[in-house]
Amino acid sequence: xxIEPILELDHALAAESPDDLPAPTLTLRLMPGDLALVEAxxxxxxxxxxxxxxGIVPLAEGTARxxxxxxxxxxxxxxxxxxxxxxxxxxxxxxxxFADTATNILLPQLHHSRAPxxxxxxxxxHLACAFGLPGLPLEQPRDLAPIDLARAACxxxxxxxxxxxxxxxxxxxxxxxxxxxxLLSALADARQRGAAAIWLTRSxxxxxxxxxxxxxxxxxxxxxxxxxxxxx
Length: 232
Known about the structure:
The chain has helices at 43-53, 76-82, 101-112, 117-130, 146-158, 180-192, 204-207; strands at 7-14, 25-30, 35-39, 59-66, 69-70, 86-89, 164-168, 196-201, 216-221, 224-227. It is an alpha/beta fold and 232 residues long.
């Protein structure tokens, strides 16, 4: 039986652009275990690409498929449920301000899965320790140190064994180098079980670090996603 791509963008032209530049036409095929390191021109462009991969940005032409399903052809409730298979680190925000960080971490899986809460909490505790936290943070996100908030964002993204990981500057533009070893370890485990990942960055430090084991190195430009060796 043929192996199905996790994510496939086939000449996907968005109906809207993240900035004043024309929207690029995107072609990308991620198989299980693939990691694409993508240099984005701005935080807005990185978030826009992540949204497009999640089926949130409407397309004028082409298709965006996740696990073989065309986002545009799915009913809204089905698409919302399928997004539960995606783990995402947002470049900024993405936190529910009135809830503590532990609740924020658990909420996506409590909403999208039927796993018992205690099982999810145990898995989240394990991830929290792996990323350098002493446990699940009980403070509200705004009260956490920036490095601990970055760790918590990774815990939330990896919880629930997602099929696709979208990581928007998880090291906060290279500020938190100490987060790199546990992040690479978590990525290796996820890829081993068949997940695919896109790591979006604007950091030269991350882009030039060949310990990041990406099998696709791409630059997001007006012409689309350009292989690094051919990018200007």
